[in-house]
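tool_call: predict_structure(chain=1)
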Amino acid sequence: MNMENGILVRWQDEKGFGFIKPEAANGKDLFIHISELKHMARKPQVGDAIQYRTQQQADGKFKAINASIEGVAVISASATTRRKNNSNPGSKSQSPKTRSSSVILIPLIVCLALAAIGFKRYEALTATPVLTNENVEQMSFNLPTQNSALHSKQNFHCETGKEYCSQMRSCAEATFYINNCPNTKMDGNHDGVPCERQWCQ
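tool_result:
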């Protein structure tokens, strides 16, 4: 069967069919369905030159089959299938945009969860314990006797540049320094008790 030529004179895009006016004289308009043009690079438009074969249907009417649009590229069957799947909202395959969003979103949620767990542990490790009166009563203090204070006093001597609490090793050393060494900066409120925040609480 030879290929015939005609012009697409009507097209119902939403229904996917139309009619071809054959070039042959006295030819009646011929029905064509979108499935006969699914391999084309674009949808048909009124005025397109169509090549086709004619086939008689069971009801006696004729329709166009094996059709193509002149001057429009033919695409492969796999590309047609892919295009069909992408246009079908019920298809199971996700669009690349949806896939890339989920690829980014899942690791982001995992990172946020790990950061929250890490922060909670950091807070627990760096939390300052709060002492109550009950805790203080249970503590035993070894207060130095007068002899041990005199003995420790003898072990200290003024060193050049030692002026601050951060350079002391005990309350006894800080007390020795403010009483015996010049230019110390360890008794800010001048009450005779040095390093109240660090050593002599």
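agent: The longest strand covers residues 4-12. Proceeding to next step.
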